[in-house]
Specification:
Length: 362
């Protein structure tokens, strides 16, 4: 029998953002911006808001719950160009590992440096337990990450410094392999279309030079402002229609190569009969070009997988010897397709044996 004199227990009313603001002595706008990572405040203000959230048990969104538990359940990845399939493959690899670990994956697009990288990183860092980022972000952004205390894994190249973990293919070795492939096909006049804003481009140029050392080859280096297909189209005529046209063109990535390939055909050149063309990254579109694009597979998806595995280990504290840092080099491979072929002996016979060197971009 129910005792009618005993009133039913009242459910505690959930704390609101207004309650947090009043407890912390700040505006609701300040609390909202802090929770959503939209703005940084003084350490005193942030401490007051964090304490109020904990005291009141405010948990209207995942970020607030994370402040209480110490974990958000989110991990983040920063890519350099959302339009480049190389980076979407990287995200795919990371996403699969994160999903199996029960984590949500957030990503941000740095737009090849056009987005303020430091501001983006600071905002994203509030929403995640760790980050995967490119090893070629701006130095201020990388310096902030090194001192942020956030678990970070770098992709694409080795990031020097104590406790830095990175994973990616060796760009110099990748280019060395591609250069040797072209050298074996009899090519000696090589034009490289690079992207000087990326350190990886310099490493690939070095690998190409090493491949042709002692071969009597002539290497010329061009540069573009963006690593996109439109830039490949733009520079194609300068590269292909010069006084001494190349036997082969190597580009910093596949997007540039596809742009050059399309424009070469528009200019009346036959690929690979008149000129061989090759790139890097092995993006999916390359195999459907006509002719299909020769490229270097830099293990994009595998890079994402390994990077996420290492990030989860760091978040969980399962990584020994952090002071030393670790770089994992993944195996790259040349994928030979129809855009490269053996050079005709007639063209080569008139080349002579010039010394290896570079010619300034016209």
């Amino acid at each position: 029998m129910t005792d009618e004199a005993t009133p039913p227990a009242r459910r505690r009313k959930a704390a609101t953002i207004r309650d947090v603001a009043e407890a912390a002595g700040v505006s609701t706008a300040t609390v909202s911006k802090f929770i959503n990572g939209g703005q940084r405040f003084t350490r005193e203000v942030e401490d007051r808001v964090t304490q109020a959230i904990r005291d009141l048990g405010y948990s209207s969104n995942p970020m607030a719950r994370g402040m209480i538990t110490g974990q958000t359940g989110n991990v983040g990845i920063v890519i350099l160009d959302i339009c480049n399939p190389h980076f979407t493959s990287l995200v795919k690899g990371a996403s699969g590992v994160a999903t199996r670990a029960g984590l949500n994956l957030l990503f941000a697009d740095a737009a090849e440096g056009h987005t303020p990288e430091l501001t983006m990183l600071q905002a994203l860092s509030r929403r995640v337990d760790g980050l995967i980022v490119s090893a070629r972000l701006s130095e201020p952004a990388l310096d902030w990450l090194r001192h942020s205390g956030l678990p970070v894994v770098y992709y694409g190249g080795q990031q020097p410094g104590a406790g830095c973990y990175s994973v990616g293919a060796d760009n110099r070795v990748s280019a060395l392999m591609l250069g040797r492939h072209l050298r074996d096909l009899g090519h000696r006049r090589i034009s490289y279309i690079g992207f000087s804003s990326a350190r990886w481009s310099t490493e690939r140029w070095q690998g190409l030079q090493e491949a042709f050392a002692g071969s009597g080859g002539v290497l010329r280096r061009f540069d573009v402002e963006a690593a996109v297909a439109e830039e490949g189209e733009r520079v194609a005529s300068s590269v292909l229609l010069c006084a001494e046209p190349p036997d082969a063109v190597v580009t910093y990535n596949d997007l540039l190569a596809l742009g050059v390939l399309g424009q070469a055909q528009a200019l009346g050149l036959k690929v690979p009969d008149d000129v061989s063309i090759a790139g890097f990254d092995n993006i999916v579109y390359g195999r459907y070009a006509s002719p299909a694009l020769t490229t270097v597979d830099t293990a994009s998806e595998k890079t994402g997988e390994i990077a996420m595995q290492r990030l989860i280990e760091r978040i969980r504290g399962d990584v020994p010897g952090e002071a030393a840092g670790v770089h994992e080099t993944l195996t790259s491979r040349v994928v030979a397709r129809g855009s490269t072929a053996r050079r005709g002996a007639g063209r080569l016979s008139g080349l002579g044996a010039p010394e290896l060197g570079t010619v300034p971009t016209p």
